[in-house]
Design brief:
The protein contains six helices and ten strands, in the order βαββαβββαββββααα. The protein is α+β, with helices and mostly antiparallel strands. The chain has a single domain, classed as Bira Bifunctional Protein, Domain 2 (BirA Bifunctional Protein, domain 2, 2-Layer Sandwich), CATH 3.30.930.10.
């Protein structure tokens, strides 16, 4: 379900509502794709010490901060980044959270391979890496076996925003698809590729849905 460009807080509220409806059996599995306004999110193990600039700098850049329930530390979402939020009932997928995270990573690795970008996992650090640079993050929350939050893949992000934090609490460099790809890629195209690969891994057909049908 493509949401286009949307405020993080609005989509977080939507995710929580859809999670409750999915658990109640009032709708089927959904994949939300979105491009956010600039925002830093802190997961359950996140620390504000990993924000490297004063609050007034963030306010001047229009960057919000949200403390949320997903796993992991701090990350950035913003223009030029694909974000996908799966609302899935893992009771239909073997109740295996580790495999679910692997699927999210694998969908991005396969999409990157379509652009001849070699990427991989790094043991102990969820997400996807191009060499020593991080190109994608994964942070999920599972309640009553229903998922929300998800993955973020850098397509053409503002690297200066990433330099304002320690992504995932690490001193690492980040990279975008368009930094290492011969052809220019947009967020919508990246979203279609990742979602198609994820559908294949889930062994589900992906059917586009108008957001008005469920909101």
């Amino acid at each position: 379900m493509p949401l286009g460009k949307a405020d993080y807080g609005d989509v977080l509220t939507l995710q929580r509502a859809l999670h409750a409806r999915r658990y109640a059996g009032k709708l089927g599995d959904l994949l939300l794709s979105v491009e956010h306004n600039p925002v830093f999110t802190l997961g359950r193990s996140g620390s504000r010490d990993h924000i490297l600039v004063p609050t007034d700098v963030l306010e001047g850049q229009g960057i919000s901060i949200y403390e949320i329930e997903r796993g992991g530390d701090i990350t950035y979402h913003g223009p030029g980044q694909l974000v996908v939020y799966p609302i899935l009932d893992l009771r239909e997928y073997g109740k295996n959270i580790h495999r679910f995270v692997w699927w999210l990573e694998e969908a991005m690795i396969r999409a990157l391979s379509d652009w001849a970008i070699s990427s991989a996992r790094k043991e102990g650090f969820p997400g996807v890496w191009v060499g020593e640079r991080k190109i994608a993050s994964v942070g999920v929350y599972v309640k009553n076996w229903v998922t929300y939050h998800g993955l973020a893949l850098n397509v053409s992000v503002n690297q200066e925003h990433f330099r304002m934090i320690r992504p995932c609490g690490l001193s690492v460099d980040t990279v975008s698809i368009n930094d290492v790809c011969d052809s220019k890629v947009d967020v919508a195209t990246a979203g279609m590729k990742v979602i198609l690969h994820l559908g294949s891994l889930l062994e589900r057909d992906i059917v586009p849905i108008d957001p008005k049908e469920v909101t």
